[in-house]
Amino acid sequence: MALQRTVARLMRLGTDLGVKNNARQFTTAAVLCRRTAPLGSMPNEDIDWKNLDALEKYCSYTRYLRAAEEASNKDVWWNTYKKHTEQKSDEDFKPVDIGLPHCRPSRLKEVRERRKVLKENRKNPELERDSRLHTYRIPLDEVKQEWEKTNGPYHIRRLAEHYGIYRDLFPMAYFVPRVMLRVTYENDSNAMVHYGNHLTPSQASSAPHISFEAEENSLWTLLLTSPDEHLQDGEQEYVHWLVGNIPGNYVCSGDEISHYMPPIPTKGTGFHRYVFILFKQEAIVDFSRDFRPNPCYSLQQRSFKTMDFYRKHEDVITPAGLAFFQSQWDNSVTSTFHTLL
What we know:
By secondary structure, this protein is α+β, with helices and mostly antiparallel strands. The chain has helices at residues 2-12, 14-17, 29-32, 61-73, 81-85, 107-122, 125-132, 140-149, 152-162, 165-169, 299-302, 306-313, 331-339, and strands spanning 96-97, 173-174, 182-185, 191-193, 195-198, 209-211, 219-226, 237-247, 255-258, 272-281, 303-304, 317-327. Among the domains are: 102-137; 153-339, PEBP-like (Phosphatidylethanolamine-binding Protein). 32% of the residues lie in helices and 19% in strands.
């Protein structure tokens, strides 16, 4: 009766309260909120409430606190205040792909091409004979070319992630090296730069030979930097070589923004990473603010940050190629410090 009187009074005052004069509008919250099945077990569902004496007795505050912390850190299906108050760490954010776009060919087309090659190989009697007699020579150059066109860029990306290249040079970003960058130090050893191999500072004492496939009218920027070498600030780098506005693949015809400086890993600091990055340009870039004097052997003027350089020119440059090596101190480093720096 009391409820009916309350409803009648509310309906009489409906105009003043902004409530429509319709009895069907008055429904309880329980009706509006449709109940759904829980996604898992409910809290304390495993407790036998009829036999509370059977519950575990902690006997000490330390054991109780440990059990409470374990229960607090346990993942549950319902929402808790902790999920709303905790700040997201950097691991919760996915890195952004800043590299060149890639249009993968049709999977069906790839399968058909592979089947065609298999049929041709099975019909080749010479190939069958060489395979049976273990005299077949695998054309490694052709295998490498096929690898570079298919899985190679993704393998190089995984290697770069393993060595922390993206983490230290492009925080929260990465790129797949679509353009194969070939770097060779043409001295007595003809040392090549791959993806984390070891070279001595003596082998890398002079500027290397750079080659890559490029269209005739394309423009490129080449960078050599070391994220481990800075003597005063661990967040900074030293730029060892920077060439911009490279026409095609003629590095010698580009604008040398910072001339080549050999590696200088100081004694006792272990292996240092030296990273070659190839950027593709959309147009000619004005690098007037990035130029260093020639010669430039001031480490202060050589201080550099790859991410800052990329942000400055990100509208016209895109990372496309990657190669890197590791190096540690030898006698040539001491000579470089004494004669050049």
